[in-house]
């Protein structure tokens, strides 16, 4: 993700070069994110790739982007709640604007939570975040893109659709795909 972060921004924000000062680079705040979500001593949970990245706008303002990449092959009923927890803990600690992404790299077409909602006696929270389901993407559109992040998406989609391939076969297919982009 770090190697392709500028391409990630351009993939999701076609006007990223106008919005962000990409020349200034990015600051990856993984250690800070780990401090906000320390592992529970009695309940080990597999950690997925989470990124908290500081970016700068063209106006020179600091902005924060949380990228939560969920790599799983099963539905997690608490996923949306966890996204909300990330949001409010980051907001509480940094008090900066945040945008969040959930990239689903699983093969379950029915799993695509897009919001968290809680309502009790007149108090309501409704939190939405950006989502992207790799398996639902159109191959032809991705192949037509000149953005390197599209290759990463196609490779991930290829891995999801060819689960019985060994690592070398998957690499060969992904390498062939990458060569077509040159």
Characterize the structure shown.
This protein has 182 residues and is α/β, with parallel strands linked by helices. It folds into two domains: 2-136, no CATH class; 138-182, no CATH class. 38% of the residues lie in helices and 23% in strands. The protein is built from seven helices and seven strands; from the N terminus they run ααβαββαββββααα. The protein has helices at residues 5-12, 16-19, 30-36, 79-94, 139-144, 148-161, 167-180, and strands at 27-28, 49-56, 62-70, 98-104, 115-120, 123-128, 130-133. Strand 5 (115-120) and strand 6 (123-128) form a beta hairpin. Helix 6 runs antiparallel to helix 7 (167-180). The longest helix is centred in the middle third of the chain and has 16 residues, at 79-94. The model has no long low-confidence stretch (mean pLDDT 82).
Biggest pleated-sheet summary: 5 strands, mixed
β-strand amount:
15-25%
Globally, the shape reads globular
Q: Any low-confidence stretches, pLDDT <50, length ≥5?
A: none
Order of helices and strands: HHEHEEHEEEEHHH
The average pLDDT value, as a whole number, equals: 82
Derived structural class: alpha/beta
Number of helices: 7
| Termini separation | 21 Å
Number of strands: 7
| Gyration radius, in Å | 18 Å
Tell me the helix content.
25-40%
């Amino acid at each position: 993700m770090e190697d392709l972060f500028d391409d990630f921004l351009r993939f999701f924000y076609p006007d990223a070069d106008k919005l962000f000062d990409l020349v200034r680079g990015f600051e990856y705040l993984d250690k800070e994110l780990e401090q906000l979500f320390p592992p529970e001593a009695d309940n080990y949970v597999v950690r997925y790739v989470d990124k908290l990245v500081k970016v700068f706008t063209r106006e020179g303002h600091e902005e924060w982007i949380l990228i939560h990449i969920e790599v799983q092959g099963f539905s997690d009923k608490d996923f949306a709640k966890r996204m909300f927890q990330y949001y409010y803990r980051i907001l509480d600690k940094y008090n900066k604007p945040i945008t969040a992404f959930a990239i689903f790299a699983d093969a379950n077409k029915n799993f695509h939570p897009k919001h968290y909602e809680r309502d009790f006696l007149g108090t309501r929270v409704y939190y939405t975040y950006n989502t992207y389901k790799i398996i639902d993407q159109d191959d032809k559109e991705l192949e037509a893109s000149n953005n390197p992040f599209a290759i990463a998406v196609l490779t991930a989609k290829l891995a999801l659709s060819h689960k019985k391939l060994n690592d070398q076969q998957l690499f060969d297919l992904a390498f062939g795909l990458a060569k077509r982009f040159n």
